[in-house]
Amino acid sequence: MYQLLTDSCCDLPYQTLHDHHVDFVSMHFAIDGVEYEDDLGENHYDINAFYQQLKQNVMPTTTQVNVGQFVDFFTPYVKTKTPILYIGFSSGLSGTFNSATQARTMLLEKYPDAQIYLVDTLAACAGEGQFVLDAIDKRDAGMAIDELAKWLTDRRLQYRMWFTVDKLDFLYHGGRVSRTSAALGTMLNIKPVMDVDTAGKLRVVRKVRARKRSLVDLANETLKAIQENPQHRVIISTSGDREAANFIKDRLHEASPQTPLQIGNIGPTIASHTGFGCVAVFSMATEDRQ
């Protein structure tokens, strides 16, 4: 048997990973100089209190996982000759996956027979989580580790990720939009409709007026994937706006009652860059995204 690994940017609940024997490495974030571990709720961090801080324009900073942390994360499995498959946060959004790649190279120099597979999901948040959940299903069905790594890599552009934010301040703070765009967008109530491109980078697809219109657009874009793959689960994630998440869930359920739908939290690492009220929808089509 082999070991599935991921990182806390998958934004799946700790209990889900624990129950399915998936280990993860944590990102870290800091507020007012105090550092916290993004542990997916293992130690019952108050995520709703965190969202309220975001709502008050507190802007946390985040830290990627470095090479040494990955060496420490992988080594216990390598020493016991347990094959590992790490399913990682998009290389287009963080240097974390590059750290994992460097750690793999270092470990193979010392343990040349180690089986260390890495999958760059080109995804974020529960988009990465979708890979993990599909990997659990394939592992439990008996798929070999090398086949699973190839299966995920071959299909990674079939995963769909659509986002919108309530305020542009955090995107400006993270360098995603200019100061002028953020100021005008706030004044004119403009909401970006975004996805993740083929390089795993955030992309503004269009800008719409009013929050409801952006939510409708997320639902409509997701329905295109559902039409191709109606049985695959859809995950709706939010940094505090459950009403908006339920609005999208209701629209999707009305259009496709057979599609499994679930709502989850955007974890503190991702939410530190989106602010309060981000809503994201994650699905899987059968054709590659462009």
Automatic annotation (TrEMBL):
It holds the Pfam family DegV. Coiled coil: none annotated. The keyword tRNA processing does not apply. Keywords: Lipid-binding. It comes from the Bacteria. PANTHER family: DEGV DOMAIN-CONTAINING PROTEIN DR_1986-RELATED, DEGV DOMAIN-CONTAINING PROTEIN YITS. This is DegV family protein.
